[in-house]
Amino acid sequence: MSQDRQNDDKTIVASSTQSLTGGQTRNNSPVLVQYDGGAAGKRFNLSSAGVLLGRRADRVQVWIDDPSVSREHCRIDFQGTTAVVTDLGSLNHTFINDVRVMQSAELMHGDMLRAGNVRLRYFSTGTAEQLLFDRIYRMAVQDRMLDVFRREYAMERLEEEFRLAKAGAVELSFIMIDLDRFKSINDTHGHDAGDIVLKEVCAVIKPLIGTNETFARFGGEEFCVLASCALQDAVALAERIRRTVELSSVDYEGKHIPVTISLGVASAQEVIEKTLDSENQPNVQELIRLADARMYQSKQGGRNRVTAS
């Protein structure tokens, strides 16, 4: 596996278009900070004259290069110091704090604006202190050794996506991933080798993760993927991940360490349908338990496989 490290769609980027700690300390213009996609961490200064947000680069002021974003997705206008968001008939809709903007809605300081699958946090004034706080938050949800998101961030996203799935606004699947015989790797080669294996597995998985997915460390040698798609598509993604890891290997101090993973896949729709005729409400924990149980089925079935039923 290559030792090179590149930021991908689901890696937090702490940089921005303006220094957060030195030089200019105050920007009185409102700003948006992008959270998702290859430009995560990018700042957009907003004009008081109003701005268009979308994917059509020659027309919009806030350009988001993501297929879930419409060419002209939404508009932000200012009435005095009040920001108002208007959806422009976008295909995948506009949300403020996970509440869909049906026509227009007020955008408050600190709110999360979502266009399709891309989220941006709004600051009414872009002081360096506020933007530094946002940067610290994003760094806090990143596993620094592996350059992927932490479990806490994945759970936050999963709760948001599950609420939307229950409302019928999105499709959602969850993939649990566990490295096979990882304890044996640590016992045989040492914990330094184990750390390198974890890094290299993440390095080959991350390029497979698109803007509709979130890749995170769930704990120890367990990882998860949140995918905005139906079960069948999530299974195809899981199989690509499994196969890519299987074909990769780690070289440590001249020794070849083969690595495989076992995966379990479940969809929110399965959980929702399961509770239709019961008094229980569908919840995120049931989705996680289902994917986790299927991952253990993969272990019991011989490892290095995907289970989705």
Written overview of the protein:
The protein has 309 residues and is α+β, with helices and mostly antiparallel strands. The protein is 30% helix and 28% strand. The protein has 7 helices and 20 strands. The strands form 5 sheets. It has a 6-stranded antiparallel beta sheet, with helices on one face. A 5-stranded mixed beta sheet has the order 4-3-5-6-9, with no helix packed on it. β12 and β13 (148-149) form a beta hairpin. α3 crosses α4. The model is unreliable at 2-26 (pLDDT under 50).
Key features?
5-stranded mixed sheet; 6-stranded antiparallel sheet; alpha+beta; 20 strands
- Stretches where pLDDT is under 50 for at least 5 consecutive residues are 2-26
- Percentage of residues in DSSP E strands: 25-35%
Number of helices: 7
Fraction of residues in H or I helices:
25-40%
Per DSSP E runs of 2 or more residues, the count of β-strands stands at 20
What characterizes the major β-sheet? 6 strands, antiparallel
Provide mean pLDDT, rounded. 86
